[in-house]
Write a structure and sequence with these properties.
The protein has 17 helices and 14 strands. By secondary structure, it is of the alpha/beta class. α10 runs parallel beside α12. The relative contact order is 0.16.
Length: 412
Amino acid sequence: MHSRRTALVVLLVVAGATAAQAGPAYEQPPVLKASEILTPAELEGPYHKVRERVVVEDYLCVFEIESDYGLLTAPSRRMLGTRLREIEILATAGRSSEAGEVFRGLENSLRRSATDAVGAIQDPFGTVRRVPQAAYNKTFGRVKGLFGSSGDPSRYEGSWAASTLYGEQKRKIAGELNLDPYSTNPAVQQVLNELAKARATGSWTVDLSSTALPSAVGYTRSAVDAQAEVKNVVLSNAPDDVDKLNDRKLAELGVSTYARQKFLACPWLSPTHKTIITAAAGGLRGVDDLEALLVAASEATDEARAVLQTQQAAMLAAFHAQQGGLRRLDGTGGVVIAYTQGGHVIVVLPIDQGTFDAHTEGAIRGVLEVPRVKAAPSRTIYVTGRCSPALEAFLKDAGVRVFQGVKPPKTS
């Protein structure tokens, strides 16, 4: 937990001149009410209900979702949106007349008590691989254990792991349903796996692309629905080919071999995450020290932090595209610091709830003397969530402008 907090705290740190010695009293992470922070559509729908109690861990809200597919946990506001959309897609598509008997029967078999806890899959990376085990071991030994597994590509596929057709069908079905083939939602993985097997054997031939899927209104869009480029790369290529394509693009941007290899081997970045971040790097072409973006992403310590990294990268690329003027990047502890042409400091902070405590204050004071940050004519932080009044007051005293409730690009 200490390393996670340090990474996030640095985002708060970059902004300021010397803070006043006297500051607000320290506070504990709050316990929030879902009804006070979510929209009505997010709070409850025909296939889900979010529990009222929301704890805050490492500045991210942790939600519990009672659904037709069991009790799911979403460790951030961003991931809540993803889970809600997955639930609605499975229920809507799986119960439609166009789904076919196989899909309807599968969806029905997945239903369980809303209080039956369901853990996230830790190895979605192996679920759409197409190479045989021997080739996998030779090629991907460098990332053995990805997503906490033993590196076995058949962990969620059984004997189908070596089938090129299986992987292609699974990604195709994911595209038809507007789902991420690397989702850690067990229900999503089971549906994609079983439908891919059925389609590969010819026992199920339904084309889901014409199925009426739920609107994205009120929900965060799926990662693979964000950009045509990202969607095409993720759904049209096996994971090893996705890595090769991203590596080639990053090399063309001047990212060092070491930084590229570390980024591509990060155990918590899925092919979807890596493709979103690579696309964002392309949007920052010409900015000095671009690989700071990749180094920061490489320090993701779990899925929530991996999603945070995609948001951070996409927000910086959007800022550069809309306002221009980013000159260079810097980074530490998973955080990217951007400098404009005029030397102003810009930091994007994809958190849900910022609080002020001794650890936060100590980290902030420890970085305020960084020469380039200290010399900056202004320091601004853009927060997707909220900061507590105590944290807001502390940052203001440190000479930091804070904009809260900023909407990130719909990339994940």
